[in-house]
Specification:
CATH class: Mainly Alpha
Structural class: alpha+beta
Helix content: 55-70%
Strand content: 5-15%
Shape: flat
Strand order of the largest sheet: 1-2
Radius of gyration: 18 Å
Number of domains: 1
CATH architecture: Orthogonal Bundle
Number of strands: 2
Order of helices and strands: HEEHH
Largest sheet: 2 strands, antiparallel
Length: about 100
């Protein structure tokens, strides 16, 4: 029950619980590895999935499949910086 409260609090704080499991055909070992659980920020998860969908439609996954996690983070941080600049411009225009 305590674990459920922790998960609910994390979801309320804007994080999603995600479980990654390898497909059986991708496992070369006798014993299947344990699933990997992680809490990811909700907005970032939606943004990255949207970018991946756009990549599939436009480039047949050639762009996103070659990107590493650091590239995804750089893309996300770039979007955050653009939003921050827009917010500052709007505040300056209001003054």
């Amino acid at each position: 029950m305590a674990n459920d409260r922790e998960v609910l609090r994390e979801i309320w704080d804007g994080k999603l619980p995600v479980c990654f499991q390898l497909y059986q055909d991708e496992i070369m070992e006798i014993q299947q590895p344990d699933p990997f659980y992680v809490m990811i920020p909700r907005l970032k998860a939606h943004y990255i999935s949207t970018v991946k969908e756009a990549d599939v439609l436009k480039h047949r996954s050639q762009v996103m499949s070659t990107m590493q996690k650091k590239d995804h983070n750089q893309l996300w941080l770039g979007l955050q910086n653009v939003q921050l600049l827009r917010d500052r411009e709007c505040m300056a225009a209001d003054k």
